[in-house]
Amino acid sequence: MSTIRSDHERAMAMAEMAFMARLQGQGDEAYELFRQALEFELAAIKAAEEAGRDEPTYSVLQRSAATLALDCNDTRGAERIVTKALSQEPPAEIAEELRDLLEKVNFRRHLELKGITLEEDELQMNLAGQGVGYGVVRSVEFLNRVENTSRAIFRIVERRRNRPFREKGRLASGVKEDYELFVSVPRAASFSVTLKLGRPTAQQRLPGILDTASIVDEFMDLMDLANQNKMEAIKERIPDPAYFRNFVALAKKVAPDGDAVQQVGFTAVRSGRQRLVQVTRPAPDFRLPPPDDQPVTSEPVIVKGFLRYADATHGASGKIKIVEEGKGGTHKVKVPEGMMSDIVRPMWDSLVTIKGRRKGSTIILEDIQEE
Q1: Residues with Cβ < 8 Å from 194, sequence gap 6 or more?
Q2: Residue 70 and residue 125: Cα distance in Å, rounded?
Q3: pLDDT, tens digit (0-9, with 9 covering 90-100), for 41-72
Q4: Nearest 10 degrees: CA dihedral of 353, 356, 357, 358?
């Protein structure tokens, strides 16, 4: 038992170091640490088998090893570990966790590139869930996520070019001329497309032109952090409050709803190695950062109605009006900076549910969802 425990503890310690290395952008070091952690966990499993497969220890070790295999991008190895664990009658609670892990393994197989070559400025987006068939998905599920992924990427470009947050108006012509997002023909399986960030015509790299691969990398980093609910880490990467709030709101719109779409995956290739980000955290679990002037002592307000008015002319914030469904009551709502253009205005004339806190006769918006 001491060998089992010591090997498992060493595996967990290395996994923790690997996570830290990944957050710091040290991809190769993280991969090597995950690989070593997996070796220790497999050694612990072997020792447990020799000791008689005591439960629940044995199944817990296998669950851990399968997770580490996914961290090493060894999808086939993770599949073997999970299926073996399920075949040996694990305790009911752990069996359910293993089945959830097997779903992640199967989704990872869909994310893997089969006969597809990605360039440095490309990423593959993949949808999976009950509402996704073989090459078929409701158009709104797909188009909205492509559109909001595009918005998030262009906001990264604007922020890294030190532009003030654009709450109204179109994307600056200088940005549009230097960058453009292309989308491939959708592929079958769990429905996937390739998004390419590049310039439509060949041109020399001019001063101030950002490397498109680094923009894709930053998007992948931020989506990974959002999926892990590491809001403070995102804030360190995006210190500007408007850009920070905007990214979290867009990430929420890209995230799965937990029903029709249960997973949204992104794949990129760096130095010949695949990088995968699986967004499994459902959109309802994303909490938008409150505005700085939010009256935290007031009671929360939830209103369902039609968005009939949207005005972004009030300085850093905008104002909207919600007409309650079936009642006709009108509510004035203040929209924090970072949410009007990309989040609120596209819902014009739609039935929405808003959440916020009242300040006098105005509701300070915290969240808005289209019904």
Answers
A1: 116, 118, 122, 123, 124, 125, 183, 184
A2: 18
A3: 998 888 888 888 788 888 889 999 998 988 88
A4: -50
What per-residue confidence (pLDDT) applies to 205? 47
Share the mean pLDDT of the chain.
Answer: 81
What is d(CA 247, CA 151) in angstroms, rounded to the nearest whole number?
A: 9
**Tokens standing for 118?**
């990605």
**Other Cβ atoms closer than 10 A to 130:** 10
Tens digit of each residue's pLDDT (9 = 90 or more) over 259-306: 788 889 898 877 667 788 889 899 888 887 666 655 555 678 888 989
Amino acid at 136: V
Q: What is the 3-state secondary structure (H, E, C) of 203-253?
A: CCCCCCCCCHHHHHHHHHHHHHHHHCCCHHHHHHHCCCHHHHHHHHHHHHH
The span from the CA of 352 to the CA of 345, in Å, is: 12
List domains and CATH numbers for the chain.
Answer: 2-108 (1.25.40), 122-285 (no CATH), 300-370 (2.40.50.140)
